[in-house]
Amino acid sequence: MMKASLIVRMLSSLDYALFEKGYGCFRLLADAPGWLINLWADADIGREIDLRTQFLYLDAFLEEAEAFWAVPRQEHLSSEIWTETDADGFEWLLEAIAFKEDGEELLLLKLATAGQQIMRQVLQESRELSLEYYQLCQAFNHREVMLHCVVHDLTTPLAGIKSSLSLLNDDTLSKDEVRELIDLGMRQVEKTRGLVHEVLEAFASKVPTMIDGVPNVHQTALEAVDMLRPVAALRNVSLEIEEAHTSDWLVRGDAHRLERIWYNLIDNALRYAPPGSTVKLQLYDEGSVIRCSVIDEGEGVTASMVPLLFRKFVQGAQQVGKAGLGLYYCRITVEGWGGTIHYRPGEHGGACFCFRIPKQTPNNP
Amino acid sequence: MIQKKVCMLGTSAVGKTSLVRRFVHGIFSDTYLTTIGVKIDKKVVPVGGDEVTLLLWDLYGEDRFLKLSERYLRGAAGFFLVVDGTRRSTLDDALQLHTRVHTVLGEIPGIILLNKADLRQDWEVEEEDIGHLAEAGWKVLPTSAKNGMGVEDAFTNLAAQLLDA
Question: Does A127 touch chain B (CB under 8 A)?
Answer without folding.
Answer: yes
